[in-house]
Design brief:
The complex is a heterodimer of chains A (266) and B (277). Chain A is built from 13 helices and no strands. With 266 residues, chain A is mainly α. Chain A folds into three domains: 50 residues, no CATH class; 121 residues, no CATH class; 67 residues, no CATH class. The radius of gyration of chain A is 33 Å and the shape is elongated. Chain B has a 20-stranded mixed sheet that branches. Chain B starts with a helix and ends with a strand. Classes of the chains: A mainly alpha (266), B mainly beta (277). Chains A and B meet through helix 7, helix 9 and helix 11 of A and strand 11, strand 13 and strand 19 of B.
Chain lengths: 266, 277
């Protein structure tokens, strides 16, 4: 057995996958060749150590994120496939319409042009609805994926995309709240706070927004969140805003703004 | 006569002695090559006290020059600790720590040092720069620039990569080239003004807000009639069926040259100036 052949057998030997004649040949080669023996010993100890490394567990959020992305994609498709079906029924129910209108056109010529344009309108509407569903699903997918990028500029783009999502099952709201609370970049947090304006329709999400104020490190983001709470007109936020106004460790401008917000909401 | 002579000795000698004890240290230089020049490079700087200047150049290494006092950690020793007949030997202190690993150069300074750091890196390097008390200047970089100067000014010139700049109390000035406009950029300051120069033919969507200042520009900005991102949604109003929301904030949305990637300008107490190049 040559040195190259021996080296090719190392891994198989450690796994116990080497047949007896080959194993014997390798053993003999290692007894004769000091260089190979040294290399095999070094690699084998590394091989054993690799076993002792703990297996890397995927973070628990990974599953949620995957299903969030899948859900967003699916929503786009379901919106696209249900709407035209409804329109198709509508179209069959009125299938007689063009014919009768055509007959009527013999009597009144003016009706013809109107009939064609209305039939065309129905078809276009269903296509537009299908496209809009697809586009919305794609926008949501793009927004969620960009919000997880390492580049702050890309995450800012993700917030811009989130602004263009028309409806969401809560994934975009959750992603934006996560950005406001945890994004390392102040500029991204500011943009995410603004984007929340149109997604925070439930009282639970409004409560999460007002609770995000005190833990914020940047006064500018704290002020943006206070403005948002005022815009959302949620009087349940008043007690938390009073806590902000009375918290000595916060920036004076932030406390002033919170006091102003309490007045506005009362 | 004698006392005047003594006085003049004290007058000249004491400052000279103090100067001798406290000489301005000469600039020091560290050169760190990036381990794989073909892969994306990045530079991370975190300096609590002192200013940072980063310049893009055509080389492959990160060249770090620094000057200033590295006082080291505060010492417990007092003058009366000096044993009779002895003098203290100054121990060397290194005010910065610079490392390179996996194409990332990291420069860190101690919180007791007042430093002036100048770094040259390849133009396409990604920057992440942070100071507490000191200004940050960047010139000729085409990678992404993430800059945070708590109490200092930020000045970005000849940028051809996206800029994400924030200062709590400092002014932000920036001049962008066409290339950097393809990506989203953002400038924000609590108490400072924001002055940004953009190429005259730049296509962008602008989001501008100054709570207690004014917004000036020589661009022909097409301002959105309804404020806020709600205006983007067809039909307006809330995304989940709510009505149109009234806005208390003063955010202004608009486009220049037909619109493009979003550029965000936010300041609480400063003014915003957006200039044509």
């Amino acid at each position: 057995m040559t040195c190259d052949e021996a080296k090719a057998c190392f891994a198989d030997d450690w796994c116990g996958m080497l047949r007896t004649p080959e194993r014997d040949q390798l053993k003999r080669h290692l007894e004769d060749c000091a260089a190979c023996r040294q290399e095999a010993d070094g690699l084998e100890s590394l091989w054993r150590k690799l076993d002792s490394l703990p297996a890397q567990e995927p973070p628990p959020q990974m599953r949620d994120r995957f299903y969030a992305a899948l859900g967003a994609y699916g929503e786009g498709f379901s919106a696209a496939s249900t709407e035209p079906r409804r329109k198709d029924n509508f179209r069959t129910a009125f299938a007689w319409l063009p014919m009768s209108v055509a007959a009527a056109a013999l009597l009144i010529g003016l009706g013809l042009g109107y009939a064609i344009s209305s039939q065309k309108g129905v078809r276009e509407n269903s296509e537009v609805a299908q496209l809009r569903g697809e586009v919305n699903g794609m926008r949501e997918l793009v927004a969620l994926s960009l919000l997880r990028q390492q580049s702050a500029s890309e995450r800012l783009r993700g917030v811009s995309w989130a602004n263009q999502v028309e409806s969401s099952d809560g994934q975009v709201l959750a992603a934006l709240l996560d950005s406001v609370n945890h994004d390392p970049n102040v500029n991204v947090r500011l943009a995410a706070a603004d984007a929340l304006r149109t997604f925070a329709m439930t009282s639970a999400s409004r409560m999460e927004i007002v609770r995000a104020i005190i833990p914020q490190s940047a006064p500018l983001v704290q002020i943006a969140l206070i403005d948002l709470v005022v815009d959302l007109k949620d009087s349940a936020s008043i007690s938390e805003l009073k806590r902000v106004a009375g918290n000595d460790s916060l920036n004076p401008s932030v406390r002033e703004r919170a006091a102003w917000a309490v007045e506005r909401l009362q | 006569m004698k006392s005047t002579f003594l006085k003049s000795i004290v007058f000249f000698a004491v400052p000279a002695m103090l100067a001798a004890q406290d000489p301005a240290p000469p600039p020091q230089r560290i050169t760190l090559p990036f381990s794989d020049p073909s892969r994306p490079k990045s530079l991370t700087v975190n300096i609590p006290m002192g200013s940072v200047t980063v310049t893009g150049y055509d080389g492959n290494d990160a060249v770090i020059e620094y000057s200033g006092r590295g006082d080291g950690p505060p010492r417990k020793a007092r003058p009366d600790d000096l044993p009779p007949g002895m003098h203290r030997l100054d121990q060397p202190t290194n005010p910065i720590e610079a490392t390179q690993e996996n194409n990332v150069v990291r420069v860190k300074g101690g919180s007791w040092d007042r430093l002036n750091i100048q770094i040259k890196v390849p133009k396409q390097t990604t920057l992440e720069l942070k100071t507490m008390n000191g200004s940050i200047s960047v010139e000729g970089i085409s990678g992404e620039m993430t800059i945070d100067a708590m109490n200092g000014h930020i000045n970005v010139q000849d940028a051809s990569g996206p800029v994400m700049a924030h200062s709590m109390n400092g002014r932000i000035t920036a001049s962008l080239a066409q290339l950097s406009a393809a990506k989203a950029s953002s400038f924000s300051s609590m108490n400072g003004s924001i002055e940004v120069t953009l190429p005259a033919d730049l296509k962008a969507r602008l989001k501008m807000k100054s709570d207690h200042g004014e917004i000036y520009t020589d661009f022909d900005v097409k301002v959105d009639s309804a404020t806020g991102p709600t205006s983007l949604a067809p039909g307006g109003g809330g995304k989940n069926g709510g009505g149109v929301l009234p806005h208390t904030d003063r955010t202004l949305y608009g486009t220049i040259n037909g619109g493009g990637p979003e550029m965000q300008f936010i300041t609480y107490n400063g003014r915003i100036v957006i200039r044509k190049k």
